[in-house]
Amino acid sequence: MTDTTTDPTPADTPAPPAEEVDTATTDDTADQDHEAPEDRDEDRGGNREAARRRRELREARAEVDRLTGVLDRMRRSEVERLVGDRLVDAADVWRDGADLAALLDDDGLVDASKVDEVLGTVLEAHPHWAPAAADARRMGATGRGSAPEEVGTGVVGLRQALGHAVGRR
Predict the structure, then answer these.
(1) Residues 126-154: pLDDT tens digits?
(2) What domain of life does the native source organism fall in (predicted)?
(3) Residue 155, phi-psi category: left (phi > 0), alpha (psi -120 to 50), beta (remainder)
């Protein structure tokens, strides 16, 4: 007898459809992937919680830094207010290296006695930073406004000076 059947060659054999191959090889991994997301969600939940807390911590620290800056500016303004009438420029109190922290009491408030001590040191080193009595009068500190016109001394008041400027006497 003659054998009429031929062995199929690889070219003659149809290849299984690609999707069957994929599903056949991924069926085992699909079960693993199916279980893994639950585990990953638990890990992600913990990571998400930790990430959320880290973000909240960064935001809280940024807010503390911002509010500390605001408070320091207010404290500096208070120190300058306290020395404002005893220095020509109140900001001069900081020029010799006065430290804001050294001017605060235990509660973090500006201590007026400490400010006075620093001001005394500043004025001792720089007496020219204090407003002179003449400067205070010139600025109207006497409450009289401009200085009175003295007759016959050559001092001219504002009204006369403006009158001369526009041609009136």
Answers:
(1) 888 888 743 554 555 545 555 554 544 55
(2) Bacteria
(3) beta
